[in-house]
Design goal:
The protein has 256 residues and is mainly beta. The chain has one domain: Jelly Rolls, CATH 2.60.120. It is 5% helix and 41% strand. The chain has helices at residues 6-13, 44-47; strands spanning 53-58, 66-74, 85-91, 96-102, 109-116, 124-126, 130-132, 137-148, 151-158, 166-170, 177-183, 201-211, 216-218, 223-227, 239-243, 249-254. The strands form two sheets. Strands 1, 3, 4, 5, 6, 7, 11 and 14 form an eight-stranded antiparallel beta sheet that branches. Strands 2, 8, 9, 10, 12, 13, 15 and 16 form an eight-stranded antiparallel beta sheet that branches. The longest helix has 8 residues, at 6-13. The two termini are 28 Å apart.
């Protein structure tokens, strides 16, 4: 995936962070009102590297500076198919991504941290990743490490796996949030359920950011973007937002 401009950043980096959740209990919490504003959502071809999948985005409130962004989910059962895809949370419209990835040789889920660094010679980079077992609770975290003049250093990783942390450097503070289930396999294959985990959905929860002055704030104003060329769920559901009962929002990405 290559990117030449800001759109390319989204096109390239919206990858990584795969599915989570076993056959979760179908609790379906109280629905909240979802804002669908296409003017505030990047075009589909910039949101998803392969143009297939679904995502939601939220803007950073004016005046806030992000110290860290957090999202928790559970690694789902292994898919039986061999299609490269990922589920992730990110900052900067997808430039900083802790990702759960299902990729060749398709034997294990992997925690992979990816970033787009405009100040580096090779803009796109990622670590090799490490295997993680289904049923593991994971927390994707993007944190501001330091700032000096116009150089902002960020750490991209998963809580509890410091050896996998990936460092990224940006010329401006990171902004805007994205959650995504992304198909990365290209082609015109017919829809096939095997490449998705054998469970109903993955639940992204405890979605919040911490400001540089120490405030913990839930991210609630999500805008949904669904682009599905090869994903067809039997339920007809794709992205569902619900209240978490504590002032925050849970985001469900459906597989079935």
């Amino acid at each position: 995936m290559l990117m030449n401009n800001h759109k390319g950043i989204l096109h390239l980096l919206l990858i990584a962070g795969l599915l989570s959740c076993r056959a979760l209990s179908q609790e379906e919490p109280r629905k909240i009102r979802v804002s669908l504003d296409p003017k505030k959502i990047p075009p589909a071809d910039t949101v998803l590297g392969s143009g297939d999948g679904y995502s939601c985005s939220a803007e950073l409130p004016a005046g806030d500076t992000i110290k860290s962004f957090h999202t928790t989910w559970t690694v789902p059962p292994k898919p039986s198919g061999k299609k490269l895809f990922a589920i992730w949370n990110s900052l900067n419209g997808g430039a900083l991504q802790p990702c759960l990835v299902w990729e060749p040789p398709y034997k294990n889920w992997k925690l992979v941290n990816e970033s787009y660094d405009p100040l580096k010679e090779h803009h796109y980079s990622r670590n090799k990743g490490r295997a993680v077992e289904p049923g593991t609770s994971i927390e994707g975290v993007v944190s501001l490490i330091s700032r000096k003049d116009d150089v902002y250093k960020y750490k991209v990783g998963f809580a509890g796996y410091p050896e996998e942390d990936h460092v990224s450097i940006l010329p401006k503070p990171a902004h805007d949030f994205v959650l995504c289930l992304e198909m990365r396999s290209k082609g015109t294959e017919e829809p096939h359920p095997d490449f998705l985990p054998p469970t109903d959905y993955v639940k992204m929860t405890d979605i919040h950011y911490v400001t540089t002055d120490g405030r913990k704030i839930p991210v609630t104003d999500w805008k949904i973007a669904n682009v599905r060329k090869h994903i067809v769920t039997p339920s007809g559901k794709y992205t569902v937002l619900t209240s978490d009962g504590a002032g925050g929002v849970n985001v469900y990405f459906y597989f079935r």
